[in-house]
Amino acid sequence: MPYFLLGLSTWWKIVPTNNQTKQYDKLFFAYMDTAITKGEQLYEADKHNYEACFFLAAAYGFDGRLHADRHDWRKATVSAKRALEYLEISKEANGLSPEFLFGQALFNYYAVWIPDNYTLLKPVLLFFPKGNKALGLQQLRNVADNGFYVGPEARVFLMKILLNEENKPEAALPIARYMASTYPDNAYCQRFYALVCFNQGEFRECERVSREILDKLNQGLPGYEAISGRYATYFLGWLMQNKYKDFTKAKDYYLRCIVFAESTAETSGGFYLYANLALARMADKEKDTKAAIRYYSVVRDKSERNSEQYNEAKAYLKKNKQ
C-alpha cells in the first residue's frame, strides 16, 4: 500500500502538465514496480489475498497508463493484460469494499468507448472482455461516493467522462466544485473546475478561480505552469472582452494565452486558436489590418477546413489580398 500511494502521489506531479513532463517517470515506475513486487509475493503466498490483487491491478493499471501516454504500446499492453488478470480475480471480493470496483468501472466504460472512438485499436480489443458503459458509470459513481484509496481518482475520471465523453457538463460541475474545494492547490482540479464553470456560464466563479490560478502560478506553486496559465488567461481574456468590455485587458490576456500555448507546443487548436480569433476580430474592428492579417493567418492555418473559423479567416485574408 505505501509504495502504491507514493506512486500515486508521484503520478499527480505528472498530471498537471497534461502528462508532458518526464522528470518523474523513473520515480513513478520504481514505486509501482515495488508495489507490484510486494503484491506478487503476497499473492503467491495466498491465492485468495484479494487485497494483494487490488493493489496489483491498480499498480499494473497505472503503470500501463503512463506507458500508453509515452506511446510504449508493448509495455502498456502487457501491463493492461496483467491488470485485467488480477482485476478478474478480485471480482470475488467486490462485496468487501467499493475500492475493488474502480478498475472494473473504468474497464467497463472504456472497453466500449475506446473502439467507438479509436477504430485502429479495435483489433487489439478483440482479446479483451466486453464492456458495459452504463454499468461502468454506475460503478464509478459508487467508488467516487464510497471509496477511500481511489475515491478521489474515481471522481476525477467521473467528472472528465461526464464533461468530455457524455456531454453532461451540468453533472460534472458539482464533482469539479468538490474536487477544487477539497484540493485547492491542485492545479489540474482548479483548471478543470474553471473550465466547467466557463462552460456552464458560472462566470463569477470562473473568474475567481482563474485569478487564483495565475496568482499561484506567479508564486511558483508546484503544478502551476503554462498549461494552467493557458486556461486561466483565455477565460479572463474572454470575460474582459465580453463581460467587462475592457478590450485592452482582453488583448493582454489573449496574448499571454498565446505565449503559454506556444511554450508547451499546444498550438493545434483550442484556446490558442480562439485567442488568435478574438485578437483578429478586435484588430479588424480597430482597422488594424496588419495585425488582423497576422492573427487571421494563424486561424486559417490552425482551423479545420470549412469550419466557421476557417471560412471567416479565409474570407478576410482573400479580401485583404493575403
Write up what this structure looks like.
By secondary structure, the protein is mostly helical. The chain is 75% helix and 0% strand. The chain contains 16 helices and no strands. The protein has helices at 2-14, 25-45, 50-69, 73-90, 101-117, 122-125, 133-146, 151-165, 169-182, 187-199, 203-219, 226-242, 247-263, 270-285, 289-302, 308-319. The protein is elongated and about 75 Å long. The termini are far apart. 40% of the residues are buried. The model has no long low-confidence stretch (mean pLDDT 92).
Fold topology:
Layout: H1 2-14, H2 25-45, H3 50-69, H4 73-90, H5 101-117, H6 122-125, H7 133-146, H8 151-165, H9 169-182, H10 187-199, H11 203-219, H12 226-242, H13 247-263, H14 270-285, H15 289-302, H16 308-319
